[in-house]
Amino acid sequence: QVQLVESGGDLVQAGGSLELSCAASGSIFSINTMAWYRQAPGKERELVAGITSGGSTNYADSVKGRFTISRDNAKNTVHLQMNSLEPEDTAVYYCYANVNLERRGVVGSYQYWGQGTQVTVSS
Asked: Whole-angstrom Cα distance, residue 51 to residue 122?
């Protein structure tokens, strides 16, 4: 029904940069919040950055000043520009979207996740 497809994960040296992208497709009425989460081995999934449909953003303290989240509402995409990467940023990064769908004339919100993309930062 709705798919989130991520791209951009890679192996990079500490201090380097990567940009992750996520595209939402399907019978989408509109999208509320979009976000990036990450999960490192042995750790819980954590919020990295989020952005509302109006463009308000929030970031985890550990990435403030280094990561920037942005979105294109017309294309249903969200991006995460990651600079000054550190080995501690190594994780699987997941795209999240809170999507409004119209079903039988009623609009409701539903949560979707991407399949994840691996980011590895070497020291």
From this structure: 28
Q: Write the pLDDT tens digit of every residue in 13-65.
A: 999 999 999 999 999 999 999 999 999 999 999 999 999 999 999 999 999 99
Task: Label the pairing between strands 11-13 and 117-122.
Answer: parallel
Q: Give the C-alpha distances (Å, rounded to integers) separating 54 from 34, 72, 98.
A: 11, 11, 14
Contact criterion met (CB below 8 Å) for 61 and 67: no
Backbone angles phi, psi at 70, to 5 degrees: -150, 165
For 40, which DSSP code?
-
